[in-house]
């Protein structure tokens, strides 16, 4: 994945020269002749670094930085400046500008600054990890890019990370990405769903137990904290953890030691904690269901995953990404989605988020009989998804079609009799049949069998 730089300068010659230098260094480059144009480019695609001239007609470099920083606070901006405006540029660095370069500058100095900025934004190489750390996360969304930039920065530390987001938004996928980008990437990543394990077993699963410590404990059991030592432990659905166990977890996080159930001694552990939940933990704390001290211990850095409906620009990317994966899995030669089918995917409500999209793509692929997935398959798959509310027009159309089919089955394809049962005249009834592409003769054949 090429790292992207946005160049902003109202001097076409300098813009061209900088573009050539950066492209020869392996970067993907977008250019903008003004600050206003740069903001338009930024709305469509988030770069890893912005390089802008300080003095430009219209919006200058500092005004551009202010506009960028409001929407994308983690996006590094490098400012190019002449000698006379150095004090202004120095002041800008105090306000968050990554760095400034004084014209004329050496190409090597520029590339060094860009590489350093890339490392900050999550676009740089680091022992071969950065090119692949977030490969499983498919996005062009600026909101997601900002969140990933923040995730990449925190990955280098051992700070606890708290991921919030609705079910199906990809919390474990993000947790694995943070682990891959961290210094612990060659150690274990272990995930546990705190809401899926019964309370009596969860303590033993996390901390381990000694033989004979309870009925059924026929041998020593190593807990997940020890299994993950040196690596990362992902505590999914932490909001479902019972209060009694929250106290014990807090003690482990404070002391960096675990005591297996039935043991008399503690065992030191070195574990990076990433936790996640779809619950509103602030409300849970207010209701006494989640400990405030544990919350702040876990929530050192917070990452919030947006709903799929808030990143609709990613739906075509994700749908085609899943299609490519599943096409190989099922060995089916399906090229893609019909335009109206993709339009329906983009406009669907997606209460189940990315997980629901994956399920819909899988269903449409398995049922596809043509090289292109049509709108009907997508419509049916969305309708079959639990929790999906069908638009009124679609629900009415479905009811009418099913109703007409049942009438014709009852009358053996006799249109006159079916029209009388429906209390509609024959002409109107035929129009309904034509609208829904229903052939009465097919029901006559069925009744004779």
How far is it from the N-terminal to the C-terminal residue, by CA?
A: 61 Å
Q: Uncertain segments of ≥5 residues (pLDDT<50)?
A: 124-129
CATH class of the largest domain: Alpha Beta
Tally of DSSP β-strands? 16
Q: Specify the CATH homologous superfamily of the largest domain.
A: P-loop containing nucleotide triphosphate hydrolases
Supply the number of helical segments: 20
Q: Profile the largest sheet.
A: 5 strands, parallel
Query: CATH architecture of the largest domain, please?
Result: 3-Layer(aba) Sandwich
Mean pLDDT score: 86
- Whole-number tally of structural domains: 4
Q: Which structural class do the helices and strands define?
A: alpha/beta
CATH topology of the largest domain: Rossmann fold
Percent of residues in beta strands: 5-15%
Helical residue percent band? 40-55%
Principal-axes geometry comes out as flat
CA-atom Rg in angstroms: 29 Å
Q: Give the strand order of the largest sheet, numbering strands 1, 2, ... along the chain.
A: 2-1-3-4-5
């Amino acid at each position: 994945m090429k790292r992207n730089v946005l160049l902003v300068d109202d001097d076409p010659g300098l813009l061209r020269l900088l573009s050539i230098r950066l492209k020869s260094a392996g970067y993907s480059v977008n250019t903008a002749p003004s600050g206003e144009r740069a903001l338009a480019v930024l709305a469509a695609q988030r770069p890893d670094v912005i390089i802008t001239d300080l003095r430009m007609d219209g919006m200058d470099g500092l005004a551009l930085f202010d506009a960028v920083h409001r929407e994308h606070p983690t996006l590094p901006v490098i400012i190019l400046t002449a000698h006379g405006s150095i004090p202004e540029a120095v002041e800008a660095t105090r306000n968050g500008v990554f760095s400034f370069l004084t014209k004329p500058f050496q190409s090597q100095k520029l590339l060094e600054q860009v590489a350093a900025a890339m490392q900050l934004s999550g676009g740089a190489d680091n022992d071969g990890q950065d090119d692949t750390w977030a490969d499983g996360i498919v996005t062009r969304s600026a909101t997601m890019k900002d969140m990933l930039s923040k995730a990449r920065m925190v990955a280098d530390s051992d700070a606890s990370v708290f991921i919030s987001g609705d079910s199906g938004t990809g919390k474990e996928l993000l947790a694995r990405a943070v682990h891959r980008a961290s210094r612990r990437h060659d150690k274990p990543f272990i995930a546990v769903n705190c809401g899926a394990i019964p309370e009596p077993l969860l303590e033993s699963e996390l901390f381990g137990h000694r033989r004979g410590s309870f009925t059924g404990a026929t041998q020593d059991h190593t807990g997940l904290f020890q299994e993950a030592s040196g690596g990362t432990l992902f505590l999914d659905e932490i909001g479902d953890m019972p209060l009694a166990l929250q106290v014990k977890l807090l003690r482990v996080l404070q002391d960096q030691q675990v005591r297996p159930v039935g043991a008399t001694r503690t065992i030191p552990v070195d574990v990076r904690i990433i936790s996640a939940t779809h619950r509103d933990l602030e409300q849970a704390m207010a209701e006494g269901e989640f400990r405030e001290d544990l919350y702040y211990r876990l929530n050192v850095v917070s990452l919030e995953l947006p709903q799929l409906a808030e990143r609709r620009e990613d739906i075509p990317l994700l749908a085609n990404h899943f299609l490519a994966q599943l096409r190989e899995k099922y060995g089916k030669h399906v090229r893609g989605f019909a335009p109206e089918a993709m339009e329906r995917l983009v406009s669907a409500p997606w209460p189940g988020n990315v997980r629901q999209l994956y399920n819909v793509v899988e269903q449409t692929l398995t049922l596809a009989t043509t090289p292109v997935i049509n709108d009907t398959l997508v419509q049916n798959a969305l309708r079959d998804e639990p929790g999906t509310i069908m638009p009124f027009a679609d629900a009415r159309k479905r009811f009418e079609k099913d109703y007409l089919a049942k009438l014709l089955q009852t009358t053996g394809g006799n249109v006159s009799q079916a029209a009388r049962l429906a209390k509609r005249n024959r002409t109107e009834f035929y129009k309904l049949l034509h609208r829904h592409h229903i052939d009465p003769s097919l029901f006559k054949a069925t009744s004779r069998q």
